[in-house]
Amino acid sequence: MQVRKLQEMGGATLLVSLPKEWVRRAALKKGSAVAMDEAADGGLLIYPSREGTDEPLGHEIDIAYPSRYRNEGIPNEITAAYLLGYDMIRVTGRDVISSRDRDRIISSIKLLIGLEIVEEDARSITSQFLVDKMAVEPSKIFRRISTIVRAMVSDTLRQLVASNESGLVESVAQRDDEVDRLHFLLVRLIRTAVKEPLSASKFRLSAIDCLDYRVAASSLETAGDYAVELSNSVSRLGTISVEVQLRIEEVIDLLDTVQSNSVRSFVQRDFKLAQRVLDDSLRLEKLIAALRDVSHDSPVEILHLADTIERIARCQRDIADLVSPMGPA
């Protein structure tokens, strides 16, 4: 870290010189615009700016075709570049991109929210992230993911009780795809906030907040995967006994409450609510144990279902565990 003294000019204005190497790397000169913002910790953030805006310069990356990696090389490289916050992603090759590989590349781009193809020819495909990252709040995306996962779990269990499984597996799988897309977008935004403190300051996120969001988002995405597993178990079940049905109905309501409150406690940094989630999780464990007790004469899928519900509840409890009694950092 460099320490520089402030200079006074005109009796009121304070000046400080910028590091010469940083100015050179950022290609700044007299008259260049820079973006400035106050950080959450009281520091001052300075970034090279797009001309006429207060946004930092974007990032571009070139991906060579054919990939040096086998199988899903190019699609995986595109996803990695997206998650790392690159705004412009170019796939370029000395040879013509084959029809099969072109389809795979285009399909991988369509799976990533905000990434659109802006140029394409025989030897290259250029995509650009067109969403204003300063206008997309991580907390709203996080809540949206939670809403989808809650619906996946609730719909699956309620259809089991109602003995109505029409289109269940397909519906849950489709919503899990949307969870994955939103999860990728959230990871991109969080990584960008870590690399660009200016973005983090816009949303009042500290470095610890960014880390917590990354962990919590992973827990939600995992819960979505478990919801798909849950729907597969339900699709293999036949008729269940009245006693098992009653136990499942008890689990449904409390599990939904745990899912809702864990996300609210995390976003609002509400420690008391987080503690209520932990208490409800203990009650839920007892209900799941009771479900196992009445399932001895039921298909083995009921026991697998109980295990999966327990894993989903654990994901929600992990989110509540991230809430500190000291409040935001």
Going by CATH, the architecture of the largest domain would be Up-down Bundle
Helix-strand makeup class: alpha+beta
Number of helices: 10
Order of helices and strands: EEHEEEHEHEEHHHHHHH
User: Which superfamily, in CATH terms, is the homologous superfamily of the largest domain?
Assistant: Phosphate transport system protein phou homolog 2, domain 2
Largest sheet: 4 strands, mixed
What would the average pLDDT be, to the nearest integer? 87
CATH topology of the largest domain: Methane Monooxygenase Hydroxylase, Chain G, domain 1
CATH class membership of the largest domain: Mainly Alpha
Number of strands: 8
So what's the overall shape?
flat
> How many separate structural domains?
3
| Unreliable residue runs | none
What percentage of amino acids are in beta strands?
5-15%
Radius of gyration: 25 Å
> Which percent range fits the helix content?
55-70%
Instruction: Report how far apart the termini are.
Output: 23 Å
Q: Strand sequence of the main sheet, in spatial order?
A: 5-6-8-7
Structure description:
- With 329 residues, the protein is an alpha+beta fold.
- The protein has three domains: 7-48, Pemi-like Protein 1, Chain: D (Ribbon), CATH 2.10.260; 60-129, Translation Initiation Factor IF3 (2-Layer Sandwich); 134-321, Methane Monooxygenase Hydroxylase, Chain G, domain 1 (Up-down Bundle).
- Helix content is 57%, strand content 12%.
- The protein contains ten helices and eight strands.
- The strands form three sheets. Strands 5-6-8-7 form a four-stranded mixed sheet, covered by helices on one side.
- A hairpin with a 3-residue loop joins strand 1 (7-9) and strand 2.
- Helix 7 packs antiparallel against helix 10 (300-321).
- The model has no long low-confidence stretch (mean pLDDT 87).
